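Suppose a colleague, Dr. K., hands you the sequence of a protein chain of 128 amino acids and asks what its three-dimensional shape might be. Before reaching for any lab equipment, you can write down a predicted structure in token form. Begin with the sequence itself:
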Amino acid sequence: MRRFLAEMNPTLRGFLLIALVVLAVMALNLYGTVIAIGMLLRIAFFLAIAFVLYLLWRDRMRGDIETWSSRAKWVFYGGLALIVADLAVVFWPAGPSLAGLNALAFVLVLAFSGFAMWRVWRDEHTYG
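The predicted structure, expressed as tokens, is then:
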């Protein structure tokens, strides 16, 4: 049996493993557990994104931003806070689905906040 599994196509072996997990969930009626794990993974994914952005800010941008004017710092950090809040609403377990006006609001907040941050960054890096 071990040799059979070792010589099997890795993609087929992966699909068989997924099918085995699905059958176990269906046989043991673990739908609630799967939903709870999915919610925890959404929160963990959001926290991972926030942590990576924090590390990027700490290592590369903090010293540069400290030389900016007070207004530029407020706009840049305000745009960042809006983006984080927008993503938090989407990734929160009981958050709204991204359909209709919710999707439009999500995209517009991301676009306007990103544009404000980019504009401030560009103005602070334009010399002349």
